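Lab channel / #folding
Pinned by the channel admin:
"Please post every new chain as: sequence first, then the structure tokens as a reply. Keep commentary short and put observations after the output so the thread stays searchable."

First post following the new format, from NK:
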Amino acid sequence: MKAKLDALHIATAAVGGMNYLLTWNCTHIANAEILPKVYEVCRDAGYEPPFVCTPLELLGASHD
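Reply from TO:
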């Protein structure tokens, strides 16, 4: 069920034309191994995917 909710979250952002999708979910959404496939699925369905990142990444926060 969790994967379906994560997919719905991404799909809603893509269909809604969002430029960014901010999430703290680095296990299932903001995951460098998963995102290329997510982006591919969105584009194959005719939607430009949002840029997925954490709020800290968007703000350019230092990870020192």
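NK: The chain has a mean pLDDT of 91.
TO: also worth noting, The CA atoms of residues 12 and 62 lie 30 Å apart.
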